[in-house]
Amino acid sequence: MAGHPGTAAELDVGVLLLDNRLPRPRGDVGNARTFDFPVAYAVIPGADTARVVERRAAGLADNARDTARALVRLGARAISTCCGFLAIVQRELADIVDVPVATSSLVQIPLVLQTLRSDQRVAVLTVNASTLTGDHFAGVGVTDAHLARVTVVGLEDTEHFNPVIMGEVHHLDRDRAQREVVAAATAAVQQDDRIGAFVFECTNLPPYADAVRASTGRPVWDATSLIRWLQSGVRCDQDTVS
Asked: What does the alpha-carbon distance between residue 151 and residue 155 come to, in Å, rounded to a whole number?
């Protein structure tokens, strides 16, 4: 386990990591410097990227549960993950620990839809649209009624970003990745001006959120906004308790 320094009593959020080695610039959920509060990390054994993204995290539920329990024993007051596709094990994790669990940024979709006009849509930007299923959405409470107002935008055909995230390329060219992400988001808005906001599924996308906001004029919510929301509910600053 690794993460932001701090005692167990100070630990706010525990993050389940996939069993991979990816470049994680600041802004990425897997980089502890992304957050200004204590975060701890623990790897789910056997959770390679392809298994989670392309094979529905097959056979990983027990390992994910054990890893979540270990973070709670360490002192984590809430649990999240470093992959939005782990939405598929949301209930398995939430039901076995006594702290809040939010496995995926997709859990924010119903709330974001509530903030938009009823004729607007949310665009979900994902590392692979072809393997993001209804079961992933259902796992975090996104219903068919919600999905009627969701557009899924996949990055599986990007020449650089997707191969980096899938572990096929080991060097991240951040500028190149940003251009690909921005191009996909911009094209989505140009094709459908009803898109009123973005939710990033992939936890490696937050470093590019500001560029997408600037290029599209739409708000963006992602895994870092989710984790900060979790932390705001569970933090306990003893100095302020009377």
From this structure: 13
Q: Could you give the strand order of the β-sheet that contains 2-3, starting from the edge strand earlier in sequence?
A: 2-3, 39-43, 13-17, 78-81, 101-102
Q: What's the pLDDT tens digit per position in 43-86?
A: 999 999 999 999 999 999 999 999 999 999 999 999 999 999 99
Q: What CATH code is assigned to 105-222?
A: 3.40.50.1860
CA–CA distances in Å: residue 228 to residues 31, 171, 177? 14, 28, 24
Question: What φ, ψ does residue 95 adopt, rounded to 5°?
Answer: -85, -5
CA distance to 19, 104, 132, 190, per residue, from 155 (Å): 21, 17, 12, 17
CATH of domain 2-103+226-240: 3.40.50
pTM of the model: 0.93
State the pairing for strand pair 101-102/150-154: unpaired
List the structure tokens of 60: 């990983």
Domains 2-103+226-240 and 105-222 share a fold: yes
Interval 180-231: pLDDT, tens: 999 999 999 999 999 999 999 999 999 999 999 999 999 999 999 999 999 9
